[in-house]
Amino acid sequence: MSDSASLVIGTRGSTLALWQARRIQKKLHRHGHESTLQRISTRGDRVQDVPISEIGDESVFTKELDRALLDGRIDCAVHSLKDLPSRLPEGIALAAVGRRASPFDAFVAHPDTAAALHELPEGATVATASLRRRAQLLAWRSDLTVVPVRGNVDSRLDTLAESDWHGMVLAVAGLKRLGRGEVIRTVIPPDIMVPAVGQGALAITCRTEASQLRTLLRGTVHDLDTATAITAERSFMKRIEGGCQVPTGAWARLNEAGELAIDGCVAALDGHTAFRAQKTTSLDKAAAVGAALAQELLDAGGAEVLDTIRTATQ
Predict the structure, then answer these.
(1) pLDDT band at 47; cut points 50, 70, 90
(2) How high is the mean pLDDT of the chain?
(3) Which of 58, 132, 174, 235 is the right S-S partner for 287, CB 3.0 to 4.6 Å?
(4) Which contacts of 153-156 are long-range, i.e. CB under 8 A and separated by 24 or more positions?
């Protein structure tokens, strides 16, 4: 790769995906590296009438981009990091991690609903596409009715406005990146809802063999603190053996003492059983602490919960 070569960046075609890819593109431009964007449709984009958890493919938003990388049609790909499967395909590397925005989830109320999340009436209906969000909402309040919803951010908000639901849950980062932060009624605290692995961060992948490009990306768009937290979270996910297919969450961050703290959660889909724990360690033990936290939750009963879910969805 020569210094004058224009990179081809692969991205999904949604408004949010394009925003994210353009953010990386601008960072590269500021460092003197030109690029073009190539939109690639994924199965997750095309199949809109089935919940993601029922498609049965952890790579539902990444497989076509991986194929384009391996075929040489694109040089790198920009993803929402939470969409990356726990194990990347052979020949694909996580080259860089962009600085994280908010990792938290947001409660967005129906336009005619005045209530914040904590003020919802008994039996209120809340929509979400995520098993993790569903399970943790019901663990917090078993009286809620949780319904599925699919689509991009704008279409989900339109669906909410036309529904009789009280509200829905979306990612804070996605709403703010699209200039829709004003619809956030409540930022959901992590003691109610542990975020998804990688939520709020961007992932840039490339071919493993592209060492020069990996070095370039590390020097221009990589954020070390975010990457350290992501290492712990993805280690947690690998040990759990699941992404959006199972209702788990993990959130790692640097605390005021300069240590790495990570929260984890495994919950049953009906919310009746939930396991939570937190660990703290030095920054150089990020991968180890993520795996250890996952094992603690599995040993506490999370393994049985996840086995039941996997058996039911086979």
Answers:
(1) low
(2) 92
(3) 235
(4) 153/15, 153/16, 153/178, 153/180, 154/15, 154/178, 154/180, 156/127, 156/129
66 is catalytic: no
Residue 3 to residue 76: CA distance in whole angstroms: 16
Q: Both tokens of residue 142?
A: 């078993």
Contact 150, 132 (CB under 8 A): no
- 88, 70: one domain: yes
| Helix, strand, or coil (residue 129) | coil
Q: What is the mean pLDDT of residues 109-138?
A: 96
Catalytic annotation, pick one of 83, 164, 223, 284: 83
- Token pair of 181 as six digits: 């932060």
pLDDT tens digits, one per residue of 180-197: 999 999 999 999 999 999
CB 186 within 8 A of CB 47: no
Q: Is the domain of 111 the same as that of 149?
A: yes
HSE-CB for 311 with a 13 A CA cutoff: 7
In angstroms, the CA 32 to CA 14 distance is 27
178, two tokens: 């699209």
Note down the domain range covering 277: 237-313
- Residue 230 domain flag: no
- Residue pointed to by tokens 């952890």: 58
Q: What is the pLDDT of residues 262-291, one digit of tens each?
A: 999 999 999 999 999 999 999 999 999 999
**276: CATH:** 3.30.160.40
Instruction: Decide the pairing of beta strands 167-171 and 260-267.
Output: unpaired
Comparing 44-58, 82-96, 158-172, the range with the smallest average pLDDT is 44-58
Q: Is the pTM of this model over 0.90?
A: yes
- In this predicted structure, what is the pLDDT of residue 175? 97
CA distance 84 to 106: 21
Q: Strand order in 260-267's β-sheet?
A: 248-254, 260-267, 274-281
Distance, in Å, from the CA atom of 97 to the CA atom of 217, rounded to the nearest integer, reads 9
Indicate whether 214 and 167 sit together in one domain.
no
